[in-house]
């Protein structure tokens, strides 16, 4: 359900919610520019394509602070990375991980940084432009969505996908906090969808069927269903940053289509290459899904990247 379709929240709920949600204020300035965040899966090891992605990262961006976002308890034999563990319910699907990235607590964990850079392991970096992009003052940028055979669902070309993404921490926290202050019911919906164990969700669904007249039960089920299938309800995490964050924080600056093309490609890389004036971007997402032959000439040789990792 889109935020604009939500009924006006009763004043009592708004007052009660403000006991828990205060306007975001940073207590001290960030001490570092950017952290690279690499979401991991719940399975051990890396696939061959993930190894390629990791080699590109280490070769071009190995000097930055790097964090593996992983299920609690998972161990990785990767030097130069700090592991941040999160509950297993936030892994296993894009929808599950999106629920993690919609929480304020996640971004509070990176308040030492001005930006976080999400580098999914189906991405490629082609150089070290990360600090330069941080200096542009953009709050959110990722590979653009363009209308083409790969993405016929796109009505308006714009930035952009969350798999290779730069996001300003302060701006993310302001947008999420302001959303709760403006629409307090969503604070409680998100508290439920982010923390409820599966047995509780199942119980809520059964109770909703048994008591169809209870609006709260029905609404909790609707919210879970929408976040569990975000692509069907326009509730993907990157949709929020691209299209909705400005509703709650008007100063939230999303990159232009032109900036997005210089930053990264995703769908139809040949088309994006032409749109970008025949120039390679800083990186790309879903390289093995959309025309992998286009990217092969730009892959770091395996022996080169091994030396880079060992240095």
Q: What attributes does this structure have?
A:
single chain, 311 residues, Spore Coat Polysaccharide Biosynthesis Protein SpsA, Chain A, 6-stranded mixed beta sheet, 3-stranded mixed beta sheet, disordered N terminus
Can you describe this structure?
- With 311 residues, the protein is of the alpha/beta class.
- The protein has a single domain (6-22, 31-310), classed as Spore Coat Polysaccharide Biosynthesis Protein SpsA, Chain A (Alpha-Beta Complex).
- The chain has 15 helices and eleven strands.
- It has helices spanning 11-17, 48-61, 94-100, 104-108, 130-134, 169-182, 185-195, 198-210, 215-228, 230-233, 237-248, 257-263, 269-275, 292-295, 302-310; strands at 32-39, 65-71, 82-86, 113-119, 123-125, 140-141, 144-145, 158-159, 164-168, 264-265, 283-285.
- The radius of gyration is 20 Å and the shape is globular.
Summarize the structure.
The protein has 311 residues and is α/β, with parallel strands linked by helices.
Secondary structure topology:
Layout (H helix, E strand, L loop, with lengths): L10 H7 L14 E8 L8 H14 L3 E7 L10 E5 L7 H7 L3 H5 L4 E7 L3 E3 L4 H5 L5 E2 L2 E2 L12 E2 L4 E5 H14 L2 H11 L2 H13 L4 H14 L1 H4 L3 H12 L8 H7 E2 L3 H7 L7 E3 L6 H4 L6 H9 L1
Parallel strand pairs: 1-2, 1-4, 2-3, 10-11
Antiparallel strand pairs: 4-9, 5-11, 6-9, 7-8
The tally of domains stands at 1
Q: What gyration radius follows from the Cα positions, in whole Å?
A: 20 Å
Reading off the top of the CATH hierarchy, the class is best stated as Alpha Beta
Secondary structure: number of strands = 11
Q: Sheet with the most strands?
A: 6 strands, mixed
CA distance, first residue to last residue? 50 Å
Low-confidence stretches: 1-7, 305-311
Going across the major beta sheet, what is the strand order? 3-2-1-4-9-6
Helix content: 40-55%
Q: Can you write the helix and strand succession as a string?
A: HEHEEHHEEHEEEEHHHHHHHEHEHH
């Amino acid at each position: 359900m889109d935020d604009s379709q939500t009924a006006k929240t009763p004043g009592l709920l708004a007052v009660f919610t403000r006991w828990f949600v205060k306007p975001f204020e940073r207590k001290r300035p960030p001490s570092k520019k950017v952290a690279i965040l690499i979401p991991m899966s719940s399975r051990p090891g890396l696939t061959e394509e993930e190894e390629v992605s990791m080699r590109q990262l280490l070769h071009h961006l190995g000097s930055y602070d790097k964090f593996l976002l992983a299920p609690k308890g998972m161990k990785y034999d990767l030097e130069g990375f700090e592991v941040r563990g999160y509950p297993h319910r936030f892994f296993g699907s894009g929808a599950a991980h999106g629920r993690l990235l919609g929480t304020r607590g996640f971004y509070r964990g990176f308040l030492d940084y001005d930006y976080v850079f999400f580098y999914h392991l189906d991405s490629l970096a082609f150089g070290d432009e990360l600090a330069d992009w941080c200096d542009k003052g953009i709050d959110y940028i990722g590979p653009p969505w363009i209308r083409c055979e790969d993405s016929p669902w796109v009505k308006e070309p714009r930035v952009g996908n969350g798999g290779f993404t730069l996001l300003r921490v302060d701006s993310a926290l302001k947008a999420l906090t302001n959303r709760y202050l403006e629409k307090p019911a969503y604070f409680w919906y998100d508290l439920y969808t982010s923390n409820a164990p599966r047995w509780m969700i199942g119980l809520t669904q059964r109770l909703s069927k048994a008591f169809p007249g209870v609006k709260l039960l029905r609404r909790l089920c609707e919210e879970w269903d929408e976040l569990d299938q975000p692509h069907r309800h326009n509730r993907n995490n990157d949709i929020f940053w691209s299209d909705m964050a400005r509703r709650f924080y008007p100063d939230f600056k999303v990159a232009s289509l032109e900036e997005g093309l210089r930053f990264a490609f995703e769908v139809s890389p040949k088309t994006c290459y032409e749109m970008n004036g025949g120039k390679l971007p800083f990186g790309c997402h879903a390289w093995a899904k959309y025309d992998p032959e286009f990217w092969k000439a730009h892959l770091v040789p395996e022996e080169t990247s091994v030396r880079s990792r060992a240095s």
